[in-house]
Design brief:
Blueprint: E1 3-9, E2 13-22, E3 25-35, E4 39-41, E5 44-46, H1 49-62, E6 67-73, E7 79-82, H2 100-107, H3 113-120, H4 129-139, H5 141-146, E8 149-152, H6 153-162, E9 166-167, H7 169-172, E10 178-179, E11 184-185, H8 187-193, E12 202-203, E13 208-212, E14 227-230, H9 235-241, E15 251-256, E16 259-266, H10 273-277, E17 281-284, E18 290-297, H11 300-313, H12 319-327, H13 350-365, H14 377-401, E19 407-411, H15 418-428, E20 432-434, H16 439-451, H17 458-464, E21 471-474, E22 485-487
Parallel strand pairs: 1-6, 6-14, 9-12, 15-19, 19-20
Antiparallel strand pairs: 1-2, 2-3, 4-5, 7-8, 10-11, 13-14, 15-16, 16-18, 17-18, 20-21, 21-22
Helix pairs in contact: 2-4, 9-16, 14-15
Length: 488
């Protein structure tokens, strides 16, 4: 029995999970959790790199006598620069840095958004690594000249753990620097923007060993011989790995957390005008499958509104209280456009913004039912609006891929809400398979166990994880929700 440590890094918290397989199936134990935030240093919003890497290395050392391997997955696009001596030149800048807009302006001198989409398959955004690099070169040209390699965040952590300078394609597919069709770095783009090809590390496939902590650049880790495994560096790819969308072509997945990623697994990229106009993006998954997906607002509005309402009421609100209220509502709630930029801003008065949006809708549609809504009804508005967004994306994906998408696999925090799961099934008129909740961490764990030979394949790993990561099927228009069938 070999134990592994999975480091699952999100943009607000990171955690470490100890996992292994025994006679009772897959066992998982959270052994580290750290909240973190971006800070302003040298005029830029940066990640607290020293704090993050210290928490990771301390956890590895704490469990060094138990674990055989460690691996990391993270959010996309952000990176660090290392010099010819292997030193990190500066703490990584975050994707929320406003100066990245300069990079997008520079790219527009060469290509339109649609042209860039056709070249890379990525939805064009200031946060793309390409635009971050262009902005950095304009702002601090000497820093980029000092760089020997660009390492995206999971690759950078892996470098600290074992000294290997490697890239992994799922995370690099978020950069807008890969050609989505041939799944390799676009030499044409690098030439057009004058970026040095030598900055790009060699790629290694997910599910391989990158090295050992014996060669770590952190001195304290060199006392241990722990394998560092190259898993799917992008958390979205890791999460998609544990969904039926990877093995069943008619299945759409929804990763519902603060943001929602809605997509399908395909054997090719879609870079035509229809995909561009639909706001889709192409990223890479396990064994270089393509994820055609849309990144839309998820539970962020609900989280922010809940916090503001708690402040107003001077008490905590349990999710069970929210569910009990919205389930009593007769009919469907009115919907708002959660894609409106006002709902992405932390300083928004969410109650006022939702009321204004519904008032505007009333002018256009003649329905002023919202005037009867109380504070808790706005949770129902958010849930209904989420489900409607998913329905619209499902229709777009059906048209573009010419696939029926007759089922949905819902993962992430949203899968915990029985109300939301049933609402999605009813709105989409599609069965919804809900769970697991912590999908990206599970993807990381299963790839490590497969690499070590502890499981035969991902399917066996999912079967073994059934007891601690159960899934529930929600059928559309089911009168009695207690009839939903729990499956392993």
């Amino acid at each position: 029995m070999k134990k592994i440590l999975a480091i699952d890094m999100g943009a607000t918290s990171i955690r470490g999970i100890l996992a292994y397989v025994d006679n009772n199936g897959l066992q998982m134990q959270e052994v580290m959790r750290l909240s973190h935030k971006m800070v302003k240093v040298d005029g830029c919003l940066r990640w607290q790199w020293s704090r993050l890497i210290t928490a990771i290395s301390d956890t590895v050392i704490k469990y060094a006598s138990e674990i055989s391997a460690v691996a990391v997955d993270t959010w996309g696009v952000d990176f660090g620069l290392i010099d010819t001596q292997g030193k990190l030149l500066a703490d990584p800048i975050t994707y929320r840095e406003p100066k990245h807009l300069k990079g997008l302006e520079i790219s527009h001198r060469y290509f339109t958004d649609e042209e860039l989409f056709r070249l890379t398959g990525n939805q064009v955004s200031p946060i793309n690594t390409l635009n971050q690099l262009l902005a950095l070169r304009a702002e601090k040209p000497q820093l980029l000249k000092q760089a020997a390699k660009i390492l995206l965040i999971p690759d950078l952590v892996q470098y600290y753990l074992c000294g290997a300078i490697l890239g992994e394609k799922s995370i690099w597919s978020t950069t807008a620097m890969l050609d989505a069709r041939n799944k390799n770095i676009s030499e044409y783009l690098l030439d057009m923007f004058g970026l040095d090809r030598h900055l790009i590390p060699a790629f290694r496939a997910a599910g391989t060993v990158s090295g050992s902590t014996l060669n770590s650049i952190i001195p304290a880790l060199r006392a241990y011989d722990i394998k560092v495994i190259n898993v799917l560096g992008h958390d979205t790819a890791g999460a998609a790995l544990v969904t039926r969308a990877m093995s069943e072509s008619d299945c759409m997945f929804i990763s519902c957390g603060t943001w929602s990623l809605v997509g399908v697994s395909t054997d090719k990229a879609f870079v035509d005008q229809a995909a561009y106009r639909a706001g889709l993006t192409n990223e890479l998954a396990y064994q270089e499958r393509t994820l055609l997906l849309q990144n839309i607002t998820g539970l962020y509005v609900l989280e922010q509104y809940k916090q503001q309402l708690e402040n107003k009421m001077a008490r905590k609100i349990a999710f069970s209280e929210i569910t009990e209220h919205v389930e009593k509502h007769q009919g469907t709630y009115l919907t708002i456009d959660l894609g409106n930029s006002v709902f992405a801003q932390a300083d928004t008065d969410f109650a006022a913004a939702m009321k204004e949006s519904l008032c505007h809708r009333a002018v256009n549609s003649g329905s002023d039912d919202y005037r009867q809504y109380d504070d808790f009804d706005y949770f129902g508005v958010i849930y209904q609006s989420l489900a409607e967004q998913y329905r619209q994306t499902q229709q777009q994906l059906r048209q573009i891929t010419q696939n029926s998408l007759s089922k949905v696999h819902l993962i992430g925090g949203g899968a915990k809400s029985t109300y939301l799961c049933q609402l999605i099934a009813d709105t989409l008129q599609t069965p919804v398979i809900a769970g697991p909740y912590e999908a990206s961490a599970l993807g990381n764990i299963l790839l490590q166990l497969k690499t070590l030979g502890e499981i035969k394949d991902i399917a066996q790993g999912l079967e073994l994880s059934g007891k601690i990561c159960p899934t529930v099927i929600y059928q559309p228009q089911m009168a009695n929700r207690t009839e939903n069938k729990k499956i392993n």
